[in-house]
Structures are given as C-alpha cells and as structure tokens.
Amino acid sequence: LGLGQSSESVYVAEEAKIAFVIRIRGINGVSPRTKKILQLLRLRQIHNGVFVRLNSATIKMLRLVENYVSYGYPNLKSVRELVYKRGFGKVNGQRIPLFDNSVIEKRLGTRNIVCVEDLIHEIYTCGPNFKAANNFLWP
C-alpha cells in the first residue's frame, strides 16, 4: 500500500440524485417568494407530491420552503410503488391513470420511454429525459 492508504476501505454511499417532495401546509400567510418556489416545484395544492432532481439550485429552493414541504430520498422500490399506485399521466392537460403503456408510448415514445418501467427507470436514474418524464407525471 502506498502512503496515506489503509487496508480498511470505507464505503461512502453516493449522494441521492432525486428527492420526492410533498406539500404539507396550505396557502395562508405564505410569502410571495415562498409561493413562487412552490409554484416552480409544481406544488400548488396541499398533499401534492413531485420528484425533484437534486442540484445546488433545487437544494437551496427546498431549504427555503422547508416549513411547507416534507421531502426524502426515495429508493427504487419507493419510486416504483409511488408510480404504480399513485401515478397519473398528463395528456392534453388531463389527468389520465397509467393503466396502459400505450398512453406513455404516445407521449414519451420519441424519447425512448415506452412503458411504466422505462418511466420509473428514467426518474430513478435521473437520465437525460428526466425532465420530460417528470413533466408527464401529474403532480
């Protein structure tokens, strides 16, 4: 072993790429800045939940609205359960349940997302089409 290396290696888990954010407080007495951040996060109603890609900007936004939201870092199983149980797609401004892969294929087929599992994979891995996949999901 070289200098500064030990035989004991320490496992450091990589940082989460996404967070799941749920709005937990209503609108009364919310400052304009906080209200704007909640709008940018697509959390217009209480109990709405969205996936958010974590970067320095979104982490700062989450810190500013901490009193109004609850958030965590989901694992693959959690993402899968949320999409299957509570997932709805946005088609022409309408809320459509994800009962059929053809709904997903019509909207996201051009981006190589053709089924629910592709959608879950894209969101969990924060892939190149994360924004399109996340916008397709109803908040």
Unreliable residue runs = none
Residue share in helices?
25-40%
Helical stretch count? 6
Shape: flat
Classify the secondary structure makeup into a structural class.
alpha+beta
Mean pLDDT: 90
Q: What radius of gyration results from the CA coordinates?
A: 18 Å
Number of strands: 5
Strand order of the largest sheet: 2-1-3
Span between termini? 52 Å
Looking at how many chains there are and whether they match, the oligomeric state comes to: single chain
Roughly what fraction of the amino acids lie in strands? 15-25%
Order of helices and strands: EHEHEHEEHHH
Instruction: Tell me the major beta sheet.
Output: 3 strands, antiparallel
Question: How would you explain this protein's 3D organization?
Answer:
- With 139 residues, the protein is an alpha+beta fold.
- 39% of the residues lie in helices and 17% in strands.
- The strands form two sheets. Strands 2-1-3 form a three-stranded antiparallel beta sheet.
- Strand 4 and strand 5 form a beta hairpin.
- The termini are far apart.
- The mean pLDDT is 90.
Overview features:
139 residues; alpha+beta; three-stranded antiparallel β-sheet
Question: Helices, strands, pairings?
Answer:
Layout: E1 18-23, H1 32-40, E2 49-53, H2 56-64, E3 69-72, H3 76-86, E4 88-91, E5 94-97, H4 101-108, H5 116-125, H6 130-136
Antiparallel strand pairs: 1-2, 1-3, 4-5
Helix pairs in contact: 3-5
